[in-house]
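User: Teach me something about this protein's shape.
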Amino acid sequence: MRLSVLDQSVAVAGRPHEQSIRNTVALARHCETLGYERFWVSEHHNHPTIVGTAPEIVMAAIAATTERIRIGSAGIMLPHYSPFKVAEVFRVLDALAPGRIDMGLGRAPGSDGRTAFALNPAANERPEHFPADVRDLMAWVQNEPLVNGHPFAAVKAFPQGATSPEIWILGSSDYGAQVAALFGLPYCYAWFFSDGAGGERAIDLYKRSYRPSERHPVPHCGLCVWALAAPTMEEAQYHLTSRVLSRINRDRGILGPLTSPDEAAKMLAPHDPARIEKIRRDSFVGTGPEVMDRIVALKEQVGVDEMAVVTWTYDEAVRRQSYTELAKAF
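Assistant: First, the predicted structure itself:
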């Protein structure tokens, strides 16, 4: 099993947003020393909880300060952008870190409809073109011919080199699984986003409908889960409190920075104890070995090749410690 990291540059109460971005870069260096396979960064817009809006820029900063770990987007929300421009950006990233770049692509807006329109006035039409955009992007980023009769067949994406980014399709529904299978690409399911609902079905659909490609003759898939490890279960549950409040607020349409565990506990007091308990019970929290056992069990249950972990904590040192505990257990 390969173990990787997803980071979302989460806003924290009382901390400048720029610190969240710098913490992402520092965490990538930390996770490289721990032996993690990949470090992926997300793309969200107009989101007061998640302030990572430009993964390609963060990836460049990480590339400049790491040597081994693979660096990826999770993902580039392709309907916002020209596939050709995305290909150019990732060709530059591959020049900075040859053979270490993952291009994770998503179809979801990563925002609300108005924000998607602000990013791209033609955004309402682009999701329909997602498969064709993926096809063109694959050709440009891998320096291969576009389909016959393509109006941009003579256009090349530079810089070119001996390596090219590894393309992944990311998603939390059957759609992404089908696109990944169609083009013979690796696929990662956002288990943490949907609490696993539909995840096993999507992975099974991906495997059953997979069309082998030259680069990926067999299907390759992964899951991303939310997890938090600490020296004791009590500590892990304490730090989870911030995430519990964030989850409950998200379900109520309230978005904002992560609050401290003590403040979150006060704000949770009026809410349904059964709902709070369910979130705690379903979360991958505990000591490193306890959390790793659950990660491995889920990997075997669903039948995937890789697992990635995303962790939110109020205290950055606690988050770094969580990844250390997991790496030790792994």
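Now, about its shape. The radius of gyration is 20 Å. The first helix runs from residue 17 to 34. If you'd like, I can walk through any region in more detail.
User: That's plenty for now, thanks!
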